[in-house]
Amino acid sequence: MGSSASPDDEAWLRYAIRLAQRAEAQGEVPVGAVVVKDGRCIAEGWNAPIAQHDPTAHAEIIALRQAGLAVQNYRLTDATLYVTLEPCVMCMGAISHARIKRLVFGAFDPKRGAVCHALSLTDAAFLNHRVEWQGGVLEETCGELLREFFRARR
């Protein structure tokens, strides 16, 4: 869905990649996320389920929680979420509930992705909010970060 990525999209996704590297440095799966509203970062997050002893501590959830606090509203209309990996079902549910306007992600996740792979929740009839999305932005860079992480653990 959507057109090609803009230079701004790539710049924000590069920011998310740097956050993913923080997760990796902490032994977490390297995924990073940034919430942008009105051209500025209002929140960021990186995977931390191990460190936080919390299965919901995905990069997107952490960033959405921070963004809600930043704007004092759980609805993040007119915000864009940038994330280095196609979101899972839990994160897509949160993205929909938060009313994120636009989602931009890097690597596709054919096994667990809930945007356009394992599930297609962006157009699910039972959800009352439709998220515009763009996938595959800086896909090779984002994918390589994950491949190297898992290769090092085998």
Automatic annotation (TrEMBL):
Matching InterPro entries: APOBEC/CMP_deaminase_Zn-bd, CMP_dCMP_dom, Cytidine_deaminase-like, tRNA_aden_deaminase
Cofactor note text: Binds 1 zinc ion per subunit.
Among its keywords, does the record have Membrane?
no
Task: Please list the residues that make up the active site.
Answer: E60
Which amino acid positions bind Zn(2+), per UniProt?
H58, C88, C91
Enzyme Commission code(s) on record: 3.5.4.33
Query: Does the entry feature the keyword S-adenosyl-L-methionine, yes or no?
Result: no
Q: Catalysed reaction per UniProt?
A: adenosine(34) in tRNA + H2O + H(+) = inosine(34) in tRNA + NH4(+)
**Top class in the EC scheme:** hydrolase
Q: Which keywords appear in this protein's UniProt record, sorted alphabetically?
A: Hydrolase, Metal-binding, tRNA processing, Zinc
Which cofactors, by name? Zn(2+)
Assembly mode = Homodimer.
Similarity annotation: Belongs to the cytidine and deoxycytidylate deaminase family. ADAT2 subfamily.
**Protein name from the UniProt record:** tRNA-specific adenosine deaminase
